[in-house]
Amino acid sequence: MLIEIIVTNVLEAVTAQNFGANRLELIQSFEYGGLSPNLELAKEVCDAVTIPTNIMIRPQGQNFIYNKKGQTQILSELDYIRDNTSANGIVFGALDNNHNIDFKLLEKVIDNKNHLQLTFHRAIDESKDIINSYKELLNYLDINLVLTSGGKETAILGAKTIKQMLELNQDKINCKILAASGITPENVSSLIKQTGVKQIHLGKGVRVNNILNKQEFEKLLKNLSS
Questions:
Q1: CA–CA separation, 181 vs 169, rounded Å?
Q2: Could you tell me the pLDDT band of residue 211, with boundaries at 50, 70 and 90?
Q3: How far is it, in rounded angstroms, from Cα 110 to Cα 191?
Q4: Which of 189, 197, 186 is nearest to 161 (CA)?
Q5: N or C: which terminal CB in the chain sees fewer CB atoms within 10 Å?
Q6: What gap in Å lies between CA 170 and CA 168, rounded to an integer?
Q7: How far apart are CA 8 and CA 6, in angstroms?
Q8: 3 three-state secondary structure
Q9: CA 194 to CA 17: how far, in whole Å?
Q10: For residue 22, how many other CB atoms are within 10 A of its CB?
């Protein structure tokens, strides 16, 4: 099982690595579901750890629909991350005004990401038809992961859809499912049993009073191994 942990600064990144994370996602603003972090911080975090770090590119919190200014900012952030950090990848997603995947913007990001891996994030959970959106993303070999709760508030509630997505992906090397939202040490075994997911994404589920907690990590690792 691959464990990806959300972090917001250098200390959290180092702590998550020491506690057993396999990969990091750097964001700011938990309250908005994650926004683009400070770009200089992104460089510092990548330099501070040895495990892969993916950087969120999401300059606004209100929705996943971007005007020209927002699109320009996305591409500018991508340029900085690509050229000035040792990031493993970026975390990005966008919808058009009809809540379908914004393929024009997606293709611009793909064309400019070069060596960076790409996780298409939970914009897919707000798309008009999540299964159809996922089928369309499967056509893009440059998308490594799709971060999703199965279109529901939590991955447990969206388990049926996550399982459907995994079944669509059986013979693919791209668009692997990264299950997210509401995952905790207590429910992770149930999620795996219901879906067969092999990568999980946790934020608040391994925190106590908003601080990464060693005991919660130990509980998570124990439940994953049992």
A1: 20
A2: very high
A3: 31
A4: 197
A5: C
A6: 6
A7: 7
A8: strand
A9: 28
A10: 15
Contact residues for 17 (Cβ-Cβ < 8 A; gap 6+): 24, 49, 50, 51
Q: Which amino acid is at 111?
A: D
The length of the chain in residues reads: 226
- pLDDT category at 200 given cuts 50, 70, 90 is very high
Distance CA(123)–CA(151), nearest Å, equals 9
201 three-class SS: strand
* CB 116 within 8 Å of CB 88: yes
pTM across the whole model: 0.96
Write the CB contacts of 27 (distance below 8 Å, at least 6 apart in sequence).
6, 7, 8, 34, 35, 36, 37, 56, 58, 91
Cβ neighbors of 77 (< 8 A, separation 6 or more) are: 36, 39, 57, 59
* Token duo for residue 102: 């914004």
Other C-beta atoms lying within 10 Å of the C-beta of residue 95: 20
Burial class (CB in 10 A: 0-12, 13-18, 19+), 48: middle
pLDDT digit string (tens) for 56-79? Answer: 999 998 899 999 999 999 999 999
Cβ contacts of 7 within 8 Å, gap of 6 or more: 13, 16, 24, 25, 26, 27, 45, 212
Torsion of CA 174, 132, 99, 62, to 10 degrees: -50
